[in-house]
User: Which sequence fits this backbone?
């Protein structure tokens, strides 16, 4: 394995580890930090009433799907980008024509 | 994690919207200008937006026993300068506010100010500073993405503290209170975002060095072919 590739995989491994360690070693509900902030506001300022609510509030199940969709759209485009750029580069290298720029 | 719908008093909501709006409008013009002067960067610009889309969808557990997500705005800020991310970040927030009930329309201004304005500018400033002090590309990108991410949530904490000062300790006490919810949770995530942004930049360096050179991230290497 090339060194650059190894470093890339180590970066991925580090990110996975950072996410996994709290799950394994720290107990917790792992609720959203925004929800916890909202709870604290409700506890410390009981007279505050949120004056607007979401127009469309998906159920937890549907929301998880929509979050997955968001990630998929982003990841899909990133994959498309790398595919296009790599192919372009390869074709350019293969043709290797002096007027190949562009 | 953004400020939830309705969780800023109307006055604050309007004020942050007014504060963020010029940045977003300026950002929209910056995107148009970028595409007009450098049409070839269209795909990479989309990729920077896509990166923010992915990262802000990933809710990652943290050491505080709660979850938050990265912002992914540091990459675009370093590649295309911060104004571009003011628009792209706001689009991400709008998507989450309308379809996912995450964040909100009344708090869109405040959230845009933290994630699409403050975060990218901090990221860009940190990147420039790190490079000027002799830091390499990877170090600069890591610090930029990590600190930009962290700055976003520090601004969120301040925004909530201004709206909900602590009864006993005032605004400062509330900054600490909300900071312990948002900023501490965010530290490991900021590190993750830094690492992931370095990964993407490493991949970009390999597949599109010419583009990164044009954007000023890589110096034209005299010995190496850039775009054969």
Assistant:
């Amino acid at each position: 394995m090339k060194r650059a590739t190894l470093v890339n995989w180590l970066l991925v491994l580090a990110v996975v580890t950072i996410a996994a360690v709290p799950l394994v070693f720290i107990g917790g509900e792992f609720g959203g930090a925004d929800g916890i902030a909202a709870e604290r506001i409700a506890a410390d300022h009981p007279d505050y009433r949120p004056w607007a609510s979401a127009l469309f509030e998906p159920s937890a199940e549907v929301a998880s799907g929509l979050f997955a969709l968001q990630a998929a759209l982003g990841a899909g485009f990133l994959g498309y980008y790398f595919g296009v750029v790599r192919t372009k580069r390869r074709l350019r290298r293969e043709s290797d024509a002096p007027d190949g720029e562009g | 994690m953004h400020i939830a719908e309705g969780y800023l008093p109307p006055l604050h909501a309007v004020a942050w919207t007014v504060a963020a709006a010029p940045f977003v409008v300026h950002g929209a013009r910056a995107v148009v200008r970028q595409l007009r002067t450098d049409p070839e960067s269209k795909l990479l610009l989309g990729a920077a937006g896509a990166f923010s889309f992915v990262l802000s969808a990933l809710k990652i557990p943290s050491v505080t026993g709660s979850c938050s997500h990265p912002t992914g705005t540091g990459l675009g800020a370093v590649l295309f300068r911060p104004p571009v991310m003011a628009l792209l970040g706001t689009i991400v927030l709008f998507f989450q506010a309308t379809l996912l009930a995450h964040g909100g329309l009344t708090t869109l201004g405040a959230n845009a100010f933290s994630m699409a304005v403050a975060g990218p500018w901090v990221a860009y400033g940190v990147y420039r500073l790190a490079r000027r002090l002799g830091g390499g590309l990877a170090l600069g990108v890591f610090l930029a993405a990590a600190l930009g991410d962290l700055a976003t949530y520090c601004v969120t904490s301040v925004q909530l503290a201004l709206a909900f000062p602590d009864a006993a300790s005032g605004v400062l006490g509330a900054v600490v209170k909300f900071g312990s919810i948002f900023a501490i949770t965010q530290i490991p995530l900021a590190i993750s975002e830094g690492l992931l942004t370095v990964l993407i930049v490493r991949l970009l360096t390999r597949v599109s060095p010419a583009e990164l050179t044009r954007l000023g991230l890589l110096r034209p290497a005299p010995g190496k072919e850039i775009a054969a």
About this structure: The radius of gyration of chain A is 23 Å.
